[in-house]
Automatic annotation (TrEMBL):
Residues engaged in binding heme: 434
Cited InterPro entries: Cyt_P450, Cyt_P450_CS, Cyt_P450_E_grp-I, Cyt_P450_sf
GO biological process: secondary metabolite biosynthetic process; sterol metabolic process
Name of the protein described by the UniProt record: Cytochrome p450
Cofactor(s) the record lists: heme
Native species: Thalictrum thalictroides (Rue-anemone)
Entry's family note: Belongs to the cytochrome P450 family.
Keyword vocabulary terms for this entry: Heme, Iron, Membrane, Metal-binding, Monooxygenase, Oxidoreductase, Transmembrane, Transmembrane helix
Transmembrane stretches, start-end: 12-32
Highest rank taxon of the organism: Eukaryota
């Protein structure tokens, strides 16, 4: 088991890892001991130097027991504890006050600098690595495409792509590998709709490069031949080579007026300017293209895969969702067969199922920050330069915020009663809150719409377990058996 954990997250032989660990660990251990004596640190274990508790945490994640791993330590040490993961000493901060502290912290206390792995793969100019003024500018470029006012003009494009892809995938086939299909579909929709890249050969090439880069993100940053990390660096180089000519072409099209500045995210980036504003360089655009692909791909593919998983297992929910979608079709007037923004906004029950699914099984388990100054929380010292890890599971499963938390109940999101701040956090909160939630909503609802109005499905392996890889997926890729069900 330990071997398979090492191989999935490192892509390297355990023997090589042990050798590297022994050489580097003693030095780091002594350094660490020396630096932090005298600080009032919370309880917890730093585990082995360099590796820390990464293996134990990642192993729990693979078994979908990450929440138990956290909860055991919360029970032992309280809502804040120390550990060592993904190459750095780390504070895990849980609970509503902890979430408020992390999500409310500004740049002078905490940065959303990701683990070294993302910084290297996505590049030095990627959103979460930028100084605040530049961060705000680049994010503005992303938001100008992702906000509802802009996104609504892309619903029909997204709908056509999803419908065509679904018909292609299910043609003459009654079993579909749902996870791989959702990953491919999400990537294709992102290339075409988010980034305005529709050349099939380029999309295929980018897809295989990104598959390698995604693995590198959740690896331990050891630059040795054969590691996932080193393969990720090579994949980044190939991605840069493919995107540069696309940027050049879009510059020309914007200049001659054949491309609108709101056509896609790259066009939005290229249109950033004005008095005293330094336009984005090609490298800034590439790094943020990679960053956005990493931020959007697995998360959005995960939500639609998990919806398919849930609907295969719960006939009552499937029937209620199908009813909602057939009623939308029944109300449609005119001959246009593509979905509209108004129709997507009628899919309220379907979205409340997705929200409840993200409460019980959040796509993102949590995320990292780095302290940028010595600070304190709950009476403990948090020294500068440590990683901070926030997690969703502790508040999502807290009966003080969600009555009967282990029951799957979409109606809690239909109720008028507001959910207390910083307790329901599948999209985070505060300054770094997800800006792609509307895009993810529209894409997921469109996929579910075409699936439920055309098919019923069941799991080929009903006993299939959920494993975090690091996002939660059915462990054998969710093969589903489809039965055609024409819209009534
Ligand atoms: C179900 C799908 C998604 C989930 C669950 C999700 C989750 C999250 C979470 C939890 C964060 C906050 C991270 C933190 O505070 O540490 C985040 C940030 C972010 N997400 Fe998403 N996301 C999803 C889809 C997307 C999509 C589709 C896009 C883009 C099209 C996107 C773009 C971003 C960006 C750019 C940030 C960083 C914002 C910032 O740092 O200011 N996400 N996402």
């Amino acid at each position: 088991m330990v071997n398979s954990v090492l191989e999935s997250f490192l892509g390297m032989s355990p023997l090589v890892l042990v050798a590297v660990t022994i050489v580097s660990s003693l030095f780091l251990y002594l350094l660490f001991k020396k630096d932090y004596r005298g600080y009032n640190l919370p309880g917890g274990s730093l585990g082995f130097p360099l590796i820390g508790e990464s293996i134990s945490f990642l192993r729990a994640q693979l078994q979908d027991r990450g929440d138990e791993w956290i909860h055991e330590r919360v029970l032992k040490h309280g809502p804040v504890f120390k550990t060592h993961m993904m190459g750095s000493p780390t504070f895990v901060i849980t609970g509503q006050p902890g979430n408020k502290f992390v999500f409310g912290a500004d740049y002078d206390i905490m940065s959303a600098k990701p683990p070294k792995t993302l910084a290297i793969v996505a590049g030095e100019y990627s959103l979460s690595d930028l100084p605040k003024p530049r961060y705000l500018l680049v994010k503005q470029g992303m938001v100008s495409f992702l906000k509802a006012e802009s996104l609504q003009h892309h619903v029909k494009h997204m709908d056509r792509l999803i419908k065509a892809s679904l018909l292609r995938e299910t043609k003459d086939r009654d079993v579909v590998q749902a996870v791989q299909f959702m990953k491919n579909l999400t990537f294709e929709v992102a290339c075409c709709v988010l980034f305005g890249v529709d050349d099939e050969v380029i999309i295929k090439g980018l897809m295989s490069d990104f598959a390698v880069a995604f693995k590198a993100f959740w690896s331990i940053p050891i630059n040795l031949p054969g590691t996932n990390y080193t393969r990720g660096l090579a994949a980044r180089k190939r991605i840069v080579e493919k995107i540069l000519p696309i940027i050049q072409k879009k510059k020309e099209e914007l200049a001659n007026g054949t491309l609108s500045p709101r056509n896609d995210v790259i066009a939005c980036f290229l249109s950033i300017g004005g008095e005293n504003v330094v336009p984005l360089s090609d490298l800034e655009i590439i790094d943020n293209f990679i960053f956005l692909m990493i931020a959007s791909h697995d998360t959005a593919a995960n939500l639609s895969s998990m919806m398919i998983w849930k609907l295969a297992r719960d006939k009552q929910i499937y029937n209620k969702i199908r009813e909602e979608h057939l009623s939308i079709l029944a109300q449609r007037q005119g001959g246009d067969e593509t979905l509209t923004w108004v129709e997507v906004n009628k899919m309220k029950y379907t979205w409340s199922v997705a929200q409840e699914l993200m409460r019980v099984i959040p796509p993102l388990f949590g995320n990292f920050r780095t302290t940028t100054a010595d600070t304190s929380f709950a009476g403990y010292d948090l020294p500068k330069g440590w990683q901070v890890f926030w997690v969703a599971c502790e508040t999502h499963m807290d009966k003080n915020f969600f009555e009967d938390p282990t029951t799957f109940d979409p109606s809690r999101f239909e109720a008028k009663k507001p959910i207390p701040p910083c307790t329901y956090i599948p999209f985070g909160a505060g300054m770094h809150q997800c800006i792609g939630n509307e895009y993810a909503r529209v894409k997921t609802l469109t996929i579910v719409h075409h699936l439920v109005t055309r098919f019923e499905w069941s799991q080929v392996n009903p006993e299939e377990k959920i494993a975090r890889q690091p996002l939660p997926y059915p462990s054998t890729g969710l093969p589903i058996k489809l039965t055609s069900k024409a819209a009534e």
